[in-house]
Amino acid sequence: MKIKHLFLLPLVFVFACGTDDEVFSGDLVDISYNPQAYTIPQPFGYPQMAQPSDNKATVDGVHLGHLLFFDEILSVDSSLACAGCHIPELGFTDGLAVSTGVPGIEGPRSSMSLLNIGFVSNGLFWDGRVNNLEAQALMPVEDPIEMAASWPDIIERIQNHDEYPALFRKAFGIEDRTEIDKFLVAKAIAQYERSLVTANSKYDQVLSGSSSEEFTDEEFEGYLMFFDEPSAVADAECFHCHGGANLASNEFFNNGLQDPEYITDEGVFLVTGNSTDMGKFRAATLRNLELTAPYMHDGRITSLEGVVDFYSDSIHIAGNLDVNLSEPINLSDTEKGFLLDFLRTLTDTTYLSNPHFLDPFE
Amino acid sequence: MFKNIAFITLVSAVFLIGCGSDDTSVTPLESDLTIKFKSHYGPSLLVLGDTYNYLDYEVQFDKFKFILTDLELVSDNNEVVSLSDVTLIDFKDAVNETEAAKGVSFDFSAIPTGNYKSIRFTIGLDSSYLGLTPADFSSNDILAQSELYWASWGNYIITKLEARFDANEDGNFLDETFQYHLGGDEAFRSVEKSIDLSLILDGSSSLDLDLDIKDILTIDGALVDPAEWSATHSTSSVGFIADLLNNFVDAFENN
After folding, report:
1. pLDDT above 90 (res A11)
2. Tell me, what DSSP letter sits at residue B153?
3. Quick one: CA torsion of B8, B10, B11, B15, rounded to 10 degrees?
4. Helix (H) or strand (E) holding B250
5. Which of A97, A203, B140, B225 is deepest in the core (most CB within 10 A)?
6. Does residue B222 belong to the interface with chain A, where contact is any CB pair within 8 Å?
7. Pair (A193, A88) in one structural domain
8. CB contact under 8 A, A326 and B95
9. Closest C-alpha to B177, from A317, A330, A331
10. pLDDT band at residue B29 under the 50/70/90 scheme
């Protein structure tokens, strides 16, 4: 029924030759539709965030996405929102080694931070299997180990909701609540995710000169190590894979985490089937690490000290171990301390005083 | 269902034209062209992760990519057709013979028909890009990618070539490695190759550009020894970087 209707629409308008005859009156037309562009911040050093041409963020779209992201209505028993596994106070991760969905089943992987996620331009998830936020947002709802629902049920709930249909009208200009579909839900959530931009850590302030903050001597040594800058301290090689404004890479590497004899997660290999991709994962952002423990795709490292010990002393030699890690880094305890001090300057908690990042239902 | 859509499209088209559009432009004489870059290691196609002989080592290549700018065709009458500004040629999919043979290809459409005598481009970023950083671009732009920018040098990395070596045939390829990340204010070179390309109306042609990384890695008649040069990360490697870039210019062949 709905499909027929949509096909007729252009036909009617074409026949009318552009006159403004109102041939279609849905239940939402009386609500004003006034899209205003939403300005996505561009913090110091970051590129401008690219947005899909058919889903540019608007004030009303981002607002709707904010509500949907925090709304448990998206799960089978209305008990789990996206925000249940992407908790603002934990840098939009969940503090668990691997996430637990509605049925209480543990998934295979650790939740990922969504702060500054709109800047990721080459494959989302630890293995890059999805290309954009719109496509990603369609997945958790029907994932049996996440929200375990079915889209038709969820859409019915939203269409019959007291408030959402009007908000979809404001966000997307639909005329009738039956036009709400999973793609519009995903678009709104993606707009909200793109708005989750924050970069006010000590590191940012030192780099941009936006405040009088300065590195301590230890933090500065750690900074030199991280970026392999000429200095008396050891090179830690981190920047090769965790570089740029987001201290991340859009590329995938084997960082020696898994013993090649006992691979528990094949990573990008699962997506491409190429043996060169065995055990490769995305070098995720190192921003806000103090909020996002435990670490790695399966949360196997519980502390930041453990991460530094791992890179310094326990890299597994795999056939495709990245060449940047082919030589042991072997840091002294003092050097480990410097690096940790630097990594802690990447924490930004300023966003937590902005309601835009918090649960709108509280 | 499909029939229906086609019908509606047709009707819409007719009516749209009826509604005041009187565009009667003449179809220009145009053709399609596919340009394909392929990389080789000597006589073999370069397959990432495959093993080749290299000096006294066995080698496996991990990564080969480079930035190419201002790709242009020059016609017999010296007219220049601009094809693209910044392109990343990344051989990351060359993980088996089939993919390696496909190369990295780009499709161009609406190119004026005629005869073309050369193709030219710049490897790297010429001086007009000096001072630009990822912050000057949109996040999905090639030049916004953090792995192509080296903050310490304030320059883009215009080429990444990475390989690992087994010195004693024990299957461990971490005896030596190299990561040649080329960059710097002078890290660009112009390349012009003669071609014999004739583009006919509504035709689709293809042009192969083959690149031999052995040519890139041969300095003074011998392959670079990874034990001597494992990386290009310091200012002391400027001369070495220049040698590799100069080699790049001659490493292309049009077959």
Report:
1. no
2. T
3. 130
4. helix B238-250
5. A203
6. no
7. yes
8. no
9. A317
10. confident
Tell me if B80 sits within 8 A of B74, measured CB to CB: yes
Judged by average pLDDT, the poorest of A5-19, A337-351, B39-53 is A5-19
**Residue A4 lies inside a defined structural domain of this protein:** no
Tracing tokens 């042609």 back to the chain, one arrives at: B205
pLDDT of residue B235: 64
Residues A306 and A258 in one domain: yes
CA distance A234 to A336: 10
pLDDT over 70 at A206, yes or no: yes
Q: Are B137 and A47 a contacting pair at CB < 8 A?
A: yes
What does the alpha-carbon distance between residue A113 and residue A87 come to, in Å, rounded to a whole number? Answer: 9
Q: A14 pLDDT exceeds 80?
A: no
Work out the average pLDDT over A194-221: 95
Q: Give A152-185 pLDDT, tens digit per residue.
A: 999 999 999 999 999 999 999 999 999 999 999 9
User: Is A207 among the domain residues?
Assistant: yes
Residues A176 and A221 in one domain: no
**Quick one: A135 and A174 in the same domain?**
yes
User: CB under 8 Å to B40, separation ≥6 — which residues?
Assistant: B46, B210, B211, B212, B213, B214
Contact A105, A145 (CB under 8 A): yes
- Cα(A159)–Cα(A140) distance, integer angstroms: 20
Residue B192's beta-bridge partner residues? B120
User: If pLDDT is split at 50, 70 and 90, which confidence band does A24 have?
Assistant: low
Question: Where is the domain boundary, A141, A176, A197?
Answer: A197
A146-161 pLDDT, tens digit per residue, is 999 999 999 999 999 9
Q: Tens of pLDDT along A269-323? A: 999 999 999 999 999 999 999 999 999 999 999 999 999 999 999 999 999 999 9
Burial of B191 (0-12, 13-18, 19+ CB in 10 A): middle
Substitution target in A48, A227, A251 with the highest count of B β-carbons within 10 Å is A48
pTM of the model: 0.90
Is residue A341 assigned to a domain? yes
Look up residue A276 and give its two tokens.
């060169």
Q: How confident is the model at residue B28 (pLDDT cuts 50, 70, 90)?
A: confident
Q: The CATH number of the domain where A270 resides is what?
A: 1.10.760.10
pLDDT band at B26 (very low <50, low <70, confident <90, very high): low
Q: What is the distance in angstroms between the Cα of A312 and the nearest Cα belonging to chain B?
A: 17
Task: Please give the residue range of the domain that contains residue B50.
Answer: 2-253
User: Residue B209's beta-bridge partner residues?
Assistant: B37, B254
For residue A160, being part of any structural domain is answered with yes
Total domains present in chain A: 2
Overall domain count for chain B: 1
**Nearest-angstrom CA–CA distance, A162 and A173:** 17
Statement to judge: residues A219 and A316 lie in one domain: yes
Chain B hits for A229, Cβ within 8 Å? 152
Q: Which domain holds residue A289?
A: 202-349
pLDDT value of residue A242: 96
CB-CB contact of A254 with A246 (8 Å): no
Residue of B nearest to A248 (CA): B146
| Cβ neighbours of A227 (radius 10 Å) | 19
Which residue of A237, A276, A285, A320 to mutate against B (max B Cβ within 10 Å)?
Answer: A276
